[in-house]
Amino acid sequence: RKCIFIKTSNRMFIFSYLHLNIYGNPAAATKEHQMTFPSSTTEIPHTLMPRVTEVFFVESKIPTIPKGAFVANPQLEKVEFLNTPTVSVEAGAFEGLDSLKDLEIVGTLLTSIAAGVFAEVPHLESLVLKSNQLGGLQRGLFDGLIKLTQLQLHMNSIQSIEDGTFDELKSLKSLHLAKNNLTSISPSLFSQLDALQTLRLYENQLTSVPEEVFLPLPNLLEIGLQRNQITQLAPRLFPHKDKLRKLYLDNNLLTDLPPEYFTGFSLLKTLTLHANQLTGLPALLFGGTPKLTEVRLHQNNLSSLPSGVFSPLTNLKELDLSKNHFETLSSEYFDGIAKLKKLYLSNNKLRTLNANVFEKVTSVTILKLSGNMLENLPEDIFEPLKALIRVDLNDNPWRCDCNFIYLYQWMKDNSKVLTHTPPVVCTFPNDLSGREVISLTEDQLVCPTLAPTTTPLHTTTMTVRQTVCGTCT
Ligand SMILES: *[C@@H]1O[C@H](CO)[C@@H](O)[C@H](O)[C@H]1NC(C)=O
Ligand SMILES: *[C@@H]1O[C@H](CO)[C@@H](O)[C@H](O)[C@H]1NC(C)=O
């Protein structure tokens, strides 16, 4: 049991393996049918016991996987090399492995694999080549792998992939090319992968994606394009709208989006657009996306929005507009999203908000307004928010003067809802700077005396405050 957590975490695997090695087993059998060869192993054993169907080479000193390495062991169903210092795989290395379903070569020093190496394992279903140092993929490398459903190539240094490389992978459902060095992809690269459901291209250096590239892929459920340098999305990039469930576009350089871009994706549940440079959104962007319950637009350059832009998202529960450039907000931004529960507006440049700004989002339970430039808020601004559970108001330059009494009182009355770590403190006036708002007493909230008044200064504090307020509003 201990040695088969490879997929979840290499580190966990190695830890378990070390544990076994404490007992000095050169080759530890974890289960009857499994065998692990540790770092003391210097070559692939010629014959294994017939019951062994899975072998693991973990940090074994195997620089080359030679031709015919497994010919005497045709029973093998799974072969894995993990963190071995392997630099080459010879042609014919896997010949005779007629039952092999699962091959993993992970964390080695391989910079290339010649076409033909996998031609002898036609029953392969899963091929994991992640965390190597592959620089490119040649046409023919995966030819003959008609049963392959999973191909993992992430965390290499792949800069180029020859056209046709994936053309024989008719059964492929998952292709993982993330964390490589791709700067572009050819329009026909995936043209034969009709069965493909998951395509991960994130963390490459793509600046654009050809418009036709997803056209031959009607079964895609997930497309990961995040963490590239994409500046523009082609208008018809995602032609198959009926199956897609997850679309990741965050951490690119998008400045705008084509109109009606996210309409008709009937099953789309996850859409990420954060950490781009969007300066605005088209008036009509969403529609016919009933499963979309979260919209993540944080860390963009938005300073205003079209009225009702989210209104087709009738099931929207979470809207993240934090880390944008908003100086104020209109209640019309929130038209039609009455089921919204979480509204994140922190780290903008908000200076003023209208009293009615939240009147349409009466179901909001979590509201974040921290990290803005707010000095005060109008009376009754929180009145429509009857379901509030948590409000963040910290990191604003609150002006705790005579005009602050409404907000002060609200904070006192709603202390359970207000986040206190970090505390909400005053910035102005100077003598209250740094003081926690709820620690003050109401009579400390005074306005400076600007002009001589008719009221003598020696009357009660209460009178002074009221009188002075009359002059400074
Ligand atoms: C590949 O990408 C990684 C991460 O972005 C970068 O550190 C590395 O220098 C790149 N290598 C080449 C050959 O461009
Ligand atoms: C977005 O804002 C950042 C600063 O927050 C700025 O460096 C960048 O140029 C802006 N991009 C656009 C397209 O306005």
Automatic annotation (TrEMBL):
Pfam family membership, one: LRR_1
The entry's keywords: Glycoprotein, Leucine-rich repeat, Repeat, Signal
Residue ranges annotated for the LRRCT domain, each copy included: 396-448
Gene Ontology CC, one term: plasma membrane
PROSITE patterns: LRR
InterPro entries: Cys-rich_flank_reg_C, Leu-rich_rpt, Leu-rich_rpt_typical-subtyp, LRR_dom_sf, LRR_TM_domain-containing
Name of the protein described by the UniProt record: LRRCT domain-containing protein
Organism: Gadus morhua
